[in-house]
Amino acid sequence: MHVSLFISDLEKTIGFYTKFFGQEPTKIKDGYTKYELAAPALIISFIQAPEKVAAQVGHFGFQVETKEELNKRLNLARGMNLVQKEEIDTACCYAIQDKYWVADPDGYQWEVYYFHEDVEFNDPRINDSEEACCSTEMKVKAEESACC
């Protein structure tokens, strides 16, 4: 998979993603940088163009294979002061997940999550709020009312 994002400040972006990805960029040019990740497999490039930074992106995410891997990544992210929010046993995208969230210097949100199981309901706030995923309390309400 390859993703390319417009960003407003290359230096801040490199600082953030070097911490978040745990590796240096594979390429840095004038107004451009690229990271190539092996696990999860991702090639992501950033182009400095502040006038093109868009708010239409929902968020990006990485699914990890085990709870242990999630906790390891979470502890590293906590140590670098990157974590904005943690959710345990949350209902989101028709699934139960444990996750944490970070945001880069331009506000692009990333979730790192462990998938528990599929469920038959989704967060009823998905189109109404920045907080797109349910808490455990929302999950129970959704099950009781079948509002999802």
User: What is the 3D shape?
Assistant: globular
Low-confidence stretches: 134-148
Task: Tell me roughly what share of residues is in helical segments.
Answer: 10-25%
Biggest beta sheet summary: 4 strands, mixed
The first-level CATH class of the largest domain is given as Alpha Beta
Domain count, please report it: 2
* Proportion of residues in extended strands: 35-45%
- Helices, by number, come to 3
User: What is the radius of gyration?
Assistant: 17 Å
Main-sheet strand order equals 1-4-3-2
**What is the arithmetic mean of pLDDT?**
84
Secondary-structure class: alpha/beta
Task: Give the number of DSSP strands.
Answer: 8
The end-to-end distance, rounded to whole angstroms, is 31 Å
What would you say the CATH architecture of the largest domain is? Roll
Defining traits:
148 residues; 2,3-Dihydroxybiphenyl 1,2-Dioxygenase, domain 1; 24% helix; alpha/beta; four-stranded mixed β-sheet
What does this structure look like?
The chain has 148 residues and is an alpha/beta fold. The chain folds into 2 domains: 1-50, 2,3-Dihydroxybiphenyl 1,2-Dioxygenase, domain 1 (Roll), CATH 3.10.180; 57-141 and 144-148, 2,3-Dihydroxybiphenyl 1,2-Dioxygenase, domain 1 (Roll). The protein has helices spanning 10-21, 67-79, 136-145, and strands at 2-7, 27-29, 32-37, 42-48, 60-64, 85-92, 95-103, 109-118. β2 and β3 (32-37) form a beta hairpin. The longest helix has 13 residues, at 67-79. It is globular, with a radius of gyration of 17 Å. The protein starts with a strand and ends with a helix.
